[in-house]
Amino acid sequence: MSANAQKLQKTYQSLCDYVQQTAMLSGVEELLQWDECTKMPPAAGPYRAEQVALVAGILHKRHTDSRLGEWLAELEDSPLAADPHSEFGTNIRLLARDYEKKTKLPQKLVEELSRTSVLAQQTWAEARKNDDFASFAPLLEKTFELKRQEAAALGFNATPYDPLLDDYEPGESTANVASVLGALREEIVPLVQEIIGSNHQPDRSVLEQDYEITQQEKLGRHVAEQIGYDFNAGRLDTTVHPFCCTPGAGDVRICTRYSIDNFENALFSTIHEVGHALYEQGLVREQHGLPTGTSVSLGIHESQSRMWENQVAFSRGFWKHFFPVTQEHFPTVLKNSSPEAFYAALNCVRPSLIRVDADEVTYNLHIFIRFEIEQALLEERLSIADLPEAWNAKYQEYLGLTPPSNAEGVMQDVHWGAGLVGYFPTYALGNLYAAQFYAKAEQDLGDLQAAFAEGEFGGLLGWLREHIHQPGQRYSPAELVERVTGEPLSHEPLLSQLRSKYGELYRL
To answer: Where on this chain does Zn(2+) bind (predicted)?
Structure first.
């Protein structure tokens, strides 16, 4: 090896060591946020906000350290970066991209965003419980003002929404996402009307009973373990709003919530978060903190959670295997039911107010609403004061329902309080990616429903590990979809799956 090559290798190693140390500190921040949502006493809130702001400030200094710029300048045009999809090329290319974005953000703004996020989430939780939008509104107003400042610092041409969307779905534009989701909306709305108008409606009475929470917890843990979640490298806790976080390599935590009269919400929220966790547990652990050991995007992440939730857990094959186990946990409630009846009840399509309770057909309508509203808020075409009224009008337009309260309306999600503006469209993109990936996996692996009926989920998980998880960020979301499936992203696989499944259930 030449002296120059040795020097480049040393620079690259210095870069990676520094970035992975920064990832350790990011894990500390995630741990503080996990604790805030699960174990922290309420009185600790203001101090926790200052702790998180302090860590965020330290992280920003590390993300923008001039040494990073020097190392990247030396490496970007070097032979190590010649192949953009190699381990070297991927890490150099994407760390340079991240450094460019981070150096545009003022330290004070980063700290204030973190501080406001913690305070807003705490206020949201209390305001939602009390149906008190007025107490949440000032912090929500401040959040959107800070996000406008962030967008301005990053720079944009068409809309301030673009740079915020790019944080979650790199390379995407608001215009393109609007076009893709618009094509989906044109097909989904009439399908929903066909289903609602069918004379053959599933009987949901088996779900409209009380399911003892201790047994829900046991069942959720059993299902999570059976489909592949490694509890040796993770844990399951309760919180107000379900989520998944990764404080470090070998530490992937999921949180869910339980309600005695809403069996589906707890179980499917758990499975959804397990889908996220399986992705995190499938990344190359030694590369943790580097682009090659990091998920591609939020949309691809959502494709994993939505696939395990919809294509797997809402399937007939899944319940052929898990119904007897569920019946053992709830013998009284399910004594007169059957796998087929339970499957049909779970797949009942009906417009609903709550996004996380929505069936897979109407779910995207909830996302369309949020996508449109948050653009209007960010661009100041809609004020925070008028937000509840605009929200209710959209729900009436898209779902034919008007929320009876703000708790069941505009305050149902934590995302805006957490500062996650630009996040919502990734849920709908995730549904599209999931359907396309699942179709390809079944083409490669054979009848997946037959495998699920036998309790075999390892084949699908292994396929996902190879094709989606282990490449890390070597490919952009668009590149990954085309590389894995041979086709660009399309709404057709999702529509095909929905029409096939619900056409049979509703005899369309």
So the answer is: 272, 276, 302
